[in-house]
């Protein structure tokens, strides 16, 4: 029987779920730089299988007993096999849809965490700064927004700030809802921040009967590998293809109702690519907006979604979230 503690580099019979989660994130971060290597698929499956087993507290008790006594029964083997199947299915889906490596300065493939790993393409600088400014395409200036006093401001990686309404909460790694998602669906978002409807963490009836999310990720690059914050170069067919690949990954396991449309927007001088689309959901259509913002050596990816039938509750506030975005050191 596999030793899942060894796979994650944990001490035997580690009981702290926080330690298990932290070690899982550490190991997947180390693997991410080699994710396109041929031998990585098996390692990624093993790491995520180990995490699914050890983060399921009831299953962990049965596994710990079998590991210590060297007594294994058929029921336990079936439960472990089920966790491995979840890990295999998810990692195979993610890696089979990852963009291929491209030539330098043509949308390099950036592999980022989404429980297992999902693919993110980025716009790279292909010319001099002067050329980029000359060739900048039109960016629609969006109306400025005065952040209400009851909204909460968050700083992400000391790189940028964003504010969210008081009807949303920051997801914790081990609140009731996140634990339920991990144990029943096998998915954990490794976004730097996930905001969800308030009180979903305790799974109240009101919170469970609506749907809204703001997912935020931050990525670092070499200086000059992505645009300055004020640049908005024209997009070509390859760019649209890579943008579509990114969104295709985001909507899984759902499908499009309306495919993405793209535009550049201007947020007080900071340019962003905005993609708008609709997908199906568990309780009707979901409206989605996808944002990419560059800052010379870093990039932010922001996904804003809410259930369409709850538009009166969410549309106005969530449309304004992007208007609160600010780079800490714009370049």
Instruction: State the low-pLDDT regions, or none.
Output: 97-135, 184-188
Q: Shape from CA axes?
A: globular
Looking at the structure, the CATH topology of the largest domain is Protein Transport Mog1p, Chain A
Any idea how many domains?
2
H/I helix tally: 10
How large a portion of the residues is in β-strands, by DSSP E? 15-25%
- The CATH architecture of the largest domain can be given as 3-Layer(aba) Sandwich
Largest sheet: 8 strands, mixed
Topology, number of strands:
13
Q: Quote the distance from N terminus to C terminus.
A: 53 Å
Order of helices and strands: HHHHHEEHEEEEHEHEHEEEEHE
Average pLDDT figure? 80
Tell me roughly what share of residues is in helical segments: 25-40%
Explain this structure:
- With 331 residues, the protein is of the alpha+beta class.
- The chain has two domains: 4-96, Orthogonal Bundle (Helix Hairpins); 122-327, Protein Transport Mog1p, Chain A (3-Layer(aba) Sandwich).
- 35% of the residues lie in helices and 24% in strands.
- It is built from ten helices and 13 strands.
- Strands 3-9-10-11-12-8-7-6 form an eight-stranded mixed β-sheet. Strands 4-5-13 form a three-stranded antiparallel β-sheet.
- Helix 2 runs antiparallel to helix 3 and helix 3 crosses helix 5 (74-96).
- The longest helix has 23 residues, at 74-96.
- It is globular, with a radius of gyration of 21 Å.
- Mean pLDDT is 80; it is low at 97-135 and 184-188.
């Amino acid at each position: 029987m596999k030793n899942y503690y060894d796979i994650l580099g944990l001490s035997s019979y580690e009981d702290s779920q926080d330690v298990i989660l932290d070690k899982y994130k550490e190991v997947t971060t180390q693997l991410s730089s080699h994710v396109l290597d041929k031998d990585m698929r098996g390692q990624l499956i093993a790491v995520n299988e180990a995490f699914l087993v050890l983060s399921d507290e009831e299953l962990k008790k049965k596994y710990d007993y079998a590991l210590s006594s060297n007594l294994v029964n058929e029921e336990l083997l079936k439960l472990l096999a089920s966790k491995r199947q979840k890990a295999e299915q998810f990692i195979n889906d993610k890696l089979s849809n990852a963009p291929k490596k491209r030539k330098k300065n043509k949308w390099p493939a950036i592999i980022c965490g989404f429980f297992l790993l999902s693919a993110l393409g980025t716009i790279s600088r292909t010319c001099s700064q002067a050329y980029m400014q000359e060739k900048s395409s039109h960016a629609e200036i969006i109306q400025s927004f005065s952040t209400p006093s009851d909204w909460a401001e968050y700083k992400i990686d000391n790189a940028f700030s964003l504010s969210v309404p008081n009807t949303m909460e920051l997801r914790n790694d081990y609140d009731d809802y996140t634990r339920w998602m991990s144990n029943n669906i096998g998915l954990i978002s490794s976004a730097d921040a996930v905001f969800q409807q308030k009180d979903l963490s305790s799974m109240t009836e009101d919170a469970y009967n609506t749907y809204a999310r703001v997912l935020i990720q931050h990525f670092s690059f070499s200086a000059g590998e992505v645009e300055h914050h004020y640049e908005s170069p024209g997009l070509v067919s390859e760019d649209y293809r890579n943008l579509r690949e990114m969104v295709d990954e985001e909507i899984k396991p759902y499908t499009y109702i309306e495919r993405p449309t793209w535009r550049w927007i201007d947020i007080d001088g900071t340019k962003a690519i905005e993609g708008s689309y609709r997908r199906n959901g568990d309780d009707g259509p979901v409206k989605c907006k996808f944002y990419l913002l560059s800052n010379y050596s870093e990039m932010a990816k922001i996904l804003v979604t809410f259930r369409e039938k709850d538009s009166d509750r969410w549309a106005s506030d969530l449309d304004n979230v992007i208007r609160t975005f600010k780079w800490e050191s714009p370049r």
